[in-house]
Design a protein that fits this description.
Oryzine_lactonohydrolase, single chain, four-stranded antiparallel β-sheet, 4 helices, Neuraminidase, 6-blade_b-propeller_TolB-like, SGL, SMP-30/Gluconolactonase/LRE-like region domain-containing protein
């Protein structure tokens, strides 16, 4: 192994001058350079499915970090670790809508709405819960291990009935949780401000587009220069049988919380999903999960693509659409950025969690794939929780990656 590490160091140093590659590699880290798989040969191990086959040429057991570009080491730092910190094998309690609350050092999140192990459908709402990262830190210290799993308490938030099928979340926004709700049956999709503290009173701030219900709202971010809320609307509620037939295209919207004006800023998607802005607010990212969960199941010829846009400085319309990255495994769902502009996305197919060793993938701002976090389970979203802490929602688990990268503050104001 030492000889292999030295050889990898030599090859990488030749192809990426100036990049420091640790040798030996840190625990839980595997290096797989593009030169090693650019040619597989006539009888090579080609993949036939992006949903049921994953790219793990070293056959390493998750969880681990897969380095594809050596600059990923600057994101991971000298001693990265990844572990499960909350688990419930029988319940997909940690699906989407992650929000970090700096004042209490907690992360809130929502269970799977209409999907596997979510126990939510047209007759049953999903739930929003939280964990304490202080509890996580204490549990890790007690474990005495740098990688062993711990299992902290998950606390359910008792929310009013106006909050139906939460799928997205961001903030805190004006000291509240900003929850994006898919709706259920005739109950409308909505944007809501929710008190993070008991009794968790909620205010619905939008539930229609000029009288028509949205399809099933999915994800949102606040534009930090303007304070406007941008959100995606898609048909997954209909496809998962808890919302009626769509009445409106799948689009991206801008909402002014001060005037209640709402308008479309981007269209032409199959299934617009995760959304994120750069720190300066000049660039927007939208994940299109068109390949996942259609009428006839998954279709890997449909989009599994993150698109990037310029944000018009006056109107905030999304312009100059271009491909940022096409995902090699599953689809990119939730999207977040770190303080250096690197793009993170939870990638995989939530419809088949038993078949996928799903990943969190990371690209630099030019769209180069730097590396992956292999979890061994499905992941849809993630959130930075202060310097060096990345909380990854993985349906029946929550993972904490302790790395060098840091996210920027999503709270507003």
């Amino acid at each position: 192994m030492a000889a292999l590490a030295a050889w990898l160091y030599y090859v990488t140093a030749q192809s990426n001058p100036g990049v420091a590659i640790p040798t030996p590699l840190p625990p839980q880290v595997v290096l797989v350079e593009p030169q090693s798989f650019a040619v597989l040969g006539q009888n090579g191990p080609f993949r036939n499915s992006s949903f049921t086959e994953f790219f793990n040429p070293t056959n390493t057991t998750p969880p681990f970090f897969q380095v594809i570009d050596p600059s990923f080491f600057s994101i991971l730092g000298p001693s990265p670790s990844i572990r499960s910190v909350a688990s419930n094998p029988g319940f997909a309690f940690a699906h989407e809508a992650p929000i970090w609350l700096p004042s209490t050092d907690e992360v809130t999140f929502a269970s799977n709405d209409g999907g596997p192990l979510g126990f939510s459908d047209i007759d049953h709402n999903n739930q929003v819960s939280k964990i304490s990262l202080k509890d996580v830190e204490t549990a890790i210290q007690k474990s005495g291990s740098t990688t062993s799993a711990v299992n902290v308490t998950v606390t359910k938030l008792d929310l009013p009935e106006t909050i139906q099928m939460t799928n997205g979340g961001t903030g805190p926004f004006r000291s509240s949780l900003l929850l994006i709700n898919s709706g259920r049956g005739p109950l409308p999709p909505s944007l809501a401000l929710v008190n993070p503290n008991p009794p968790h009173n909620a205010t619905i701030i939008l539930d229609n587009f000029f009288g028509r219900q949205f399809n099933s709202l999915n994800d949102a971010k606040v534009h930090h220069k303007t304070g406007k809320i941008f959100f995606t609307d898609v048909i997954y509620g209909f496809l998962n049988h808890f919302r009626p037939a769509p009445l409106i295209p799948s689009q991206v919207y801008r909402f002014d919380p001060d005037t209640s004006e709402v308008r479309v800023v981007a269209d032409g998607f199959d299934k617009p999903n995760g959304i994120a802005f750069t720190k300066d607010g000049n660039t927007a990212y939208i994940a299109d999960t068109g390949a996942s969960g259609g009428f006839l199941g998954n279709n890997q010829t449909e989009p599994a693509t993150i698109y990037v846009f310029d944000v018009d400085p006056k109107t905030q319309a999304f312009t100059n659409r271009r491909v940022f990255a096409y995902v090699d495994t599953g689809v990119a769902d939730g999207v977040q950025l770190d303080d250096n502009g690197n793009v993170y996305a939870g990638c995989g197919d939530g419809a088949h969690p038993a078949n996928i060793r799903v990943l969190l993938q990371v690209w630099n701002s030019q769209g180069t794939l730097l590396g992956k976090f292999f979890l061994g389970t499905t992941s849809a979203n993630l959130i930075f929780a202060g310097k060096g802490r990345l909380v990854i929602l993985a349906e029946t688990n929550i993972y904490l990656a302790q790395i060098a990268a840091e996210g920027f503050n999503l709270a507003f104001p």
